[in-house]
């Protein structure tokens, strides 16, 4: 309390001079740093020490998970890079990808129908499962993502409390807010001490930069992809912008009252301060959801230019800010270097998938080095992409498994201007029809993100729920899991892919691939259930002689491949997965039960439905099956 009073008195008495000292470090010179400066330095160190200790604690708690990941032979936990050349041993045994390739323009005129999707108690078809011996020596250990004693808390915190936000995420943000508020008010009064808010703003910048890295060092340590942590980046950024504005308002008010604002702004350090503030406000304004959704390029370029202004402006405005700004510059530079290392120029074949209105991009020379669920940033060097189209990079989830014979595969759905041009380019290349002419040079950067340290093959059952173009996640995941299954490196007894599409006809090109995958599921059951949301009034051709009929579920090409109208019943799907995870009489019976993993990729609402259904499962059931973990991916932020 006495310290607080002392601070207030100093600030008031000095007419803000001490605050200038904190902000610029200059006027304090003759008398050394003011009490305010020292308290501000102490508090900013305290809050950062607290934040990084908490991060360190989480890293420590997750060490067993990292060890489990390393033992699972699932790739590198840090710095993954693409590899070219011959398919790696990961593609053994051969032919996973040599099933029928995507077929375009299939003919449709039949009436072949099958049974509908299972109800609550119905079991799935087991015809492809092999009951011969399954060597368990190479199976990955199952390590839950959080220590067992935290399980009840983890379950509770998974609950959705706001659209797109779990209780855990809200708890993280609220606690972060409290720490920042402590930093802002401890031994300080924002009405008399303008420098404090400025220091709080810059002291959080390294964390904000660390959370923004695509090849996130922090994410690698914590075991989360950068997209998973992006919500903290956005929130911390906004708090920092607020603090910078509080700092600025203090001086604008004071100098305006004194009638000296124009003279003050002629001091270089205050002019730099103004530049810093404008850059922060631009960063904030153009990162609002409206810009990210409606004009991504404006968001991107305002962020890039704003960051470039921040470095010199921060250093020139406040000497005390320099260590923080240097840390940001190092993090930014490192990210750029790692991204450059992770980039390659390759030749891609681009074809058009008319029914899905997608471009199918195949890069045969990039063979391995990624994990299912990771994405790349794609740049296409073609005049067909427009005057500046070559300068844009867009993220796409890799749709093939690492080591697959087709190399790296992407499905790019027409969503706006750039993807529209890519689809047009695919049509044009298709129309040339001459071998080798349908190729184009591309810049591929990645792999990024993905399920990080979650090892899907260490669970007893996996449910992959994908919406629309989220199928890319489902395809790469299924391929990877089937390769592991055949190499005796998987505990999975059951995999179900649930794909929600608007139109039943859009699935046609993928049916041969789906059938091929189901036929290759040797020691586990693979079931693929497609659900369409469009209300049919007449029959719609789907595949060869199969047609979708109003209000009727059908099977296509294989009993484990079903097409049903309406939204999926996740509760039934989960119950079925749990039943199969605990199921006896399979080749993997000796492996026991090691939980169910759910991977979701699609709109936020889809993730919310899945999380809700998992939340409704009784705790006793969850414990019996060894826990249920969810990994979510969304196409955007
Ligand atoms: C991690 C991730 C993985 C994705 N995987 C796939 C995939 O496998 N298949 C697929 O078809 N689509 C995928 N997308 C979506 C795809 O990136 C966008 O549809 C595409 O960038 C749209 O560009 P556009 O100019 O045609 O459309 P626009 O009209 O400019 O944008 C449409 C939407 O895409 C977002 N977007 C635009 N440009 C970018 C960008 N450079 N980076 C991030 N988001 C952008 C916008 O915010 C907007 O919401 C993925 C997105 C993300 C974030």
TrEMBL record:
**Residue span, FAD-binding FR-type domain:** 335-454
Q: What is its EC number?
A: 1.16.1.9
Residues covered by region (Disordered): 1-30, 84-116
Q: What class of enzyme is it?
A: oxidoreductase
Membrane topology per record: Multi-pass membrane protein
A Gene Ontology BP annotation from the UniProt entry: intracellular iron ion homeostasis
In what ranges is there compositional bias, type Polar residues?
86-98
According to the record, the segments passing through the membrane are 49-70, 162-185, 205-224, 236-253, 273-291, 298-320
Q: Name one GO molecular function term.
A: ferric-chelate reductase (NADPH) activity
* Feature: compositional bias, Low complexity: 1-11
Protein location: Cell membrane
Q: What is its main location?
A: membrane
Q: Which family does it belong to?
A: Belongs to the ferric reductase (FRE) family.
Name used for this protein in its record: ferric-chelate reductase (NADPH)
Organism, by scientific name, is: Ephemerocybe angulata
